[in-house]
Amino acid sequence: MNLRAKGGWVLLLAGVSLLLIGGPAAAQPVNVDAAKKEGQVVVYGAQVPQAMEGVNKGFEKKYGIKVDYWRGSSTQVAERALSEFRAGKPGYDVVEGNRGVQLIMRDEGLFAKFVPPSSDKFPAKFKEKDGMITPWRALPISILYNTEMVKANEVPKTLDDLLSPKWTGKISMPDPTRHTTTAQFLWNLSKFKGDKWLDYVKALAKQKPILVESLAPVTTTIIKGEAAVGIAYIKYVKQYKGPVSYVLMDKYLTDPNYMSLSAKTTRPNAAKLYIDYICSAEGQKATAEEGEFPMLPGIVPPIKDAEKVVPGMIFMDNPSEEEFNKLMSTTFRQIFFNP
Asked: Distance from CA of residue 283 to its chain's centroid?
């Protein structure tokens, strides 16, 4: 199924505007005893399994409720959830993913309203007014590099440094014609470069980057030495073992991720308890230990200079349906494949 062809981005901008009206939705209590009786929660998420292990095991140990976790990219998660929902057979209780695809699913009716009590200390500016999706982590993007291939005095300091001839054929990044977050990232470069953002994208394409499916494989290509540098999430330097580090910059385009409750779950209490646990201090600390940047203030991952990253995070905007389709199927295809 082609997510964009199904009109997934319909009403996205209108939906975002509606979220700005009124105050935040009220938190809802969770019935722990009922959740334990349900005994299981099925989660579809974009988070790599190794980064969810600590959180999921902590939840299982605390409540005796089994977590069945299926992982795909945010786009793949949305495609599976939408297909199941439209077929009337949703297999998920909770869906995790980035803002763009979560809003698509919300607008199609996949989610039920739920505001976890433990999210009350999250920054108000990140909360959704309608209570249909709950932020739980932030994903700042930077330059990653192979510490054995790139000498300390050669490490790029900014995205502009990637345009140096020495990086030609040595940069790894997701294919922006297939990966929505990368298309979103390139489009949001306008926050730094104004009207010249597209000139930067064209210059980057001339560097003949190694295009992969999504952000996680970028790290793998760097560790294997297939690429010297790449554009990916900072968290991967903790989640993948190998000679990889990240570039400390002043500002980072950042993708917020959300947890949402299925509107047709047969295990509503277990699903609510899982989301509440993820947003609790215990869950947020476990999240940080896995390299994530959680929403709860004062908690950062065990990554060098992580506390310096947080102030520079800039949340990305979402293109409209028409803009996304044009970017991925026309603009970026022309730039990267038909120069």
From this structure: 18
